[in-house]
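User: Second chain of the day. Same drill as before.
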Amino acid sequence: MGRASGDKLKQNNDKSSESIKDVLVRWLGFGENKEFISRYVVSSNTRAIVYMAVLVLIINFLIAAKTVVSHITGADAGTSEFMLQMILVVMIFFTCAMSIAYARKEILRIKNTKGGDLSYSTVLIFSGVCIIYGFFVSLLEYRYDGIVMTFIAMELIVICILAWRPFISISIVAGTFALFYAMITLETGHVPGSRFTIGYIIVAISIVITSVSAFHQKQNEAEKDERLVSTNMHLAETAVKDELTGAANMSFFRKRASEILKDPQTRYERQIFVYLDVENFRPLNEKYGFESGNSFIKKFAGQVIDVFYDGLVGRPGDDHFVVLCDKEDLEKRITKLRTYIYNCGFDTQTGLKAGGYPVKDRNIDPSVACDRARYACNSIKKHYDQDYCEYDQELDNKFIMRQYIVNNVDAAIDRGDIKVYYQPVCWAKNRKLCGYEALSKWEDQKYGFLPTPLFIPVLEEYHQVHKIDMVVVDTVCRDLRWLMDNGRPAVPVSLNFSRLDFELTDVVDLLCSCTRKYNILPEMIHVEVTESALSDNLDSLHKDLDRLRALGFPLWLDDFGSGYSSLNVLKDFSFDVMKIDMVFLSSFQDEDKEDKTKAVLKNIVSMANDLHMHTLTEGVETLEQAEYLKSIGCERLQGYLFGKPMPLKEALVKITAGTLPVSEEYI
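Assistant: Same format as last time:
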């Protein structure tokens, strides 16, 4: 069930479980003070007040005229009654005039702080005078013909049209009708008959029911409008604020930052965009829970807003913040924020990295400025001795190159600029070729040769690396088909896949479709997966690897020992080949480390054999290294000793020349 559906169901349950007492309290008006409903009732009836006031004015002029004529002709006995009626006429005239004046203000939407109070007071005065007028006029008329319609009309005007709370309506009806009944008894000297009393009570009940119905309708309308206003306020706030932290969202941040920089009064050369990144926030979330993590982010956002009180603070998302502020005391402010994080007392190694981009052009796009500040921040993520980096020319050159790579990878693929190079893999026992590792190279028309370590990490960061790997898979299968069709030596080729490849595309389907397309046996394609890709032990990745193995694709564990190796990987996954990282051979010639290196290599190979895994060591550059690896049982070797990554045609030249002999066994 969705959250919206759940909330609606909860509201219905709460409403159905409302007790009779709660209903009575709410309807009688003793409960929550709904100021909005009162305002709504007054505001929504301003037109009615005007029209009724005009009507009452006309009626009163007619009654006044009748009274004067009756008094002159002597038909009306009693000067006191005449004076009383004239006073009432004047009061009604004054009240109606006030009502018209203030209702007109309301209708014309004239904003006035005191206007609402005066308008509400006018309604009260108008209502009171109407009741008094109806009361006394009906008493005067009752003497002659027993008619009380003026009084009933005034009650209806006040109670039904103004739609006061049921409690007030009931009180007014009960009080005024009881008083009127008592006054009639005093005036006539006897209790009214039962027929009058019954009719009198029925009229009173009818007015109460009508008033309750009117109030119920107005209440529903008011609550609907109140929800609409609340929703609009929430949407308006969401449009400019981050929901969790209250900082500006990026849409508003970019808009406001552009306005600030373009303001002639802003000294833009003193402004700087700052990108803040809370380090190791993910482990904090995992250890303390997302609720605690969100609480920390909310409090930290408050600190950022306080520290940069004179700047503009936005939140791109997660544990990242951007700030546009003055350069003055920037590092002191960042240090204050870093101290706050340290003082939170988390067990995890939580810190703060920051990158800055000084504004050099008033018309700079805030999106570009934020990206450059973020790039400066990311450039020191693995530099534990540096917490702040400012964007400079060197970073600018790298940033431009990164943007070029991201923006041109599709065009490079379409033009055929992505090439596949093959590095030989040889048997340790006879040093004959038993396979290749396929590596992607970018031969750009503008910058020339782009090394793999330059563009692969960038494409991984922007989740586009799978595009390159799809090209490599298709090219390798096509080359193998060409070799076999032309009677040239064809050996298995290993392909590198990262975790992102499995997340962004269906690697299993890709390999199966390509091998079927070119009629290649699955055993000719070896799938290399880096150890770091398996650190999270994702269930989906585990299933994909099992499917590949079941379909006949050999699995290789790549770069074993390149970082903090986890033996759980060897326990949880099944691989055919363990590829030992070249880092072990980098210190092979160091006399202080050589013995330890050899001991580690020997034990790794022994462990792999116990796990029924074949072994391959990369980075082999000397005969001494090759001989030692052979002596400890390592089966395959790869490195510059046998050849650098090269185009397929160059590899065929070496094979033809006999410098790269081909083995007849591949597994």
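The first helix runs from residue 3 to 16.

User: Great, on to the next one.
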